[in-house]
Amino acid sequence: MTNQVSAQNLETLSAELLEKARGARGGRAAKGVFAGTYLRQALLTLRAGAELAEHDAPPEATLHIVTGQVRMVTADESWELGAGELIAIPPQKHSVEALTDAAFLLTIRTEIDRG
User: Fold this and answer.
1) CA 95 to CA 42: how far, in whole Å?
2) Closest CA to 81 of 62, 68, 90
3) Cβ pair 94, 51 in contact under 8 A
4) pTM
């Protein structure tokens, strides 16, 4: 990541990271693509069947599927999402499982110190 403004091709980066995920023991790979004062974005990839185990949600975040299909699950609901879909992540514990090889952009609002 850099502070300079530059365009990134998420489809190309997704393909590169998916190759890494396919060879990784945990079946996943990720790369930070933007870090600002109040916003962070990372591109995550999972090979089919791999998952991000249940974890806490940040205060505000979205998941945008770049390629493939995933299932996001909370204690109360689950969503199957495909390429091009965007969802706000509920503010509760959740997991994400790849139904196919998948890449998704995670956008998180960072905490604002109101000092």
Assistant:
1) 16
2) 68
3) no
4) 0.89
